[in-house]
Amino acid sequence: MKNLMIFGEVLFDIFPDGNKVFGGAPFNVAWHLHGLGADPLFVGRVGDDNNGKKIISKMGEWEMNMKGIQIDSEHPTGRVTIKLKDGQPAFNIEADQAYDFISADETLNENGSDFDLLYYGSLALRTKKAKENLKKIKDEIKTSIFVDINLREPWWSKESVKNMIRDVRWVKLNDEELAQIMDAKFSNNNELIKLAKKAREKFGNEVLIVTAGEKGAYFITKNKAIFQKPRKVKNLLDTVGAGDAFSAVSILGFINDWPLELIAERAVDFAADVCEIQGATISDKGFYRKKLCLWKSSI
């Protein structure tokens, strides 16, 4: 069993009708990894409030490792309020939330520094303090890193994201984010692959993963570019969390030394599964067992 640290935000999406759904990319990744048989340490921070208690309760029900969860008595559990503007959703990611203050010292004192992989995204590093805390963790555990880029206005800058992905082993982002970071455009698959190769070389990554939604995904290495065509989604409910599902399976593949082609195939397939359910996570352990059995039988 590999030791995985998943660092970052857990929050609630608050919809106009008052409905609340828990999530956050790192939390979703940790949730899926646990369902798929890994035992990741999710390092996050919640407020000493009802939302925080609900998240801790959900983690307990899912039997996740709780040693990385911190309680903040000064800042609230993360919230994203969603409003409809001309019929379209507009997202307000609130400032000064508990996940902005994840303590490196508390993390390391409670859990040590023996980890085989560290995952983090871009939103949880939106403040100087958060960047300092993550750097302290990175300097202490010195392990392979998977960075998951999710650009959310106004909480990112081009220079900050470039620094975030430089010289890390694995990076995942989508095609639009690739174009934004590289200040470039593409009009076809060949131009996209060329741009991705340029980015991988520029930032020194072992594998650069570019997702392109219903168009599929690309895994770019020094020596090859793998394109994985999309799987047909039979009953599309929503695409929320599909990218996080993709990241979870990619991580599982990397730590278990699956061939890159197999990682691409399974990550795209699992992301399509999540598009056929409501929300970003699945609370049915039977679903994950069935998927694992299917993968095992296909070896």
Task: Please tell me about this protein's structure.
With 299 residues, this protein is α/β, with parallel strands linked by helices. The chain has one domain: UDP-N-acetylmuramoyl-L-alanine:D-glutamate ligase (3-Layer(aba) Sandwich). Helices cover 40% and strands 22% of the residues. It has ten helices and 13 strands. The strands form two sheets. The protein has a nine-stranded mixed sheet, sandwiched between helices. Strands 3-2-6-7 form a four-stranded mixed sheet. Helix 6 (175-182) packs across helix 7 (189-203). The chain is globular, with a radius of gyration of 18 Å. The two termini are 20 Å apart.
Fold topology:
Layout: E1 4-7, E2 11-14, E3 20-23, H1 25-35, E4 41-47, H2 50-61, E5 69-72, E6 78-85, E7 88-93, H3 104-111, E8 117-121, H4 128-141, E9 144-148, H5 158-165, E10 170-174, H6 175-182, H7 189-203, E11 207-211, E12 217-220, E13 225-228, H8 242-255, H9 260-275, H10 285-297
Parallel strand pairs: 1-4, 1-8, 2-6, 4-5, 8-9, 9-10, 10-11
Antiparallel strand pairs: 2-3, 6-7, 11-12, 12-13
